[in-house]
Amino acid sequence: MSQRKDNIETEQEHALATEAEEQAHLEDVVPEPAEPAGDDNEPLEVQLQKAQATIKDYWDQVMRMRAEVENNRKRAERDVENAHKYALKNFADSLLPVIDSMEMGQAAANAENATLESIREGSELTMTMFVQVLERSGFEQINPLGEKFDPERHQAISMVEVPDAEPNSVIEVMQKGFLLNDRLIRPAMVVVAK
Amino acid sequence: MGRIIGIDLGTTNSCVAVMEGGKPKVIENAEGDRTTPSIVAFGADDEVLVAQPAKRQAVTNPSNTLYAVKRLIGRRFDEDAVQKDIKLVPYKIIKADNGDAWVEANGQKMAPPEISARVLQKMKKTAEDYLGE
Question: Which domains does chain A possess?
Answer without folding.
Answer: 61-137 (no CATH), 138-194 (2.30.22.10)
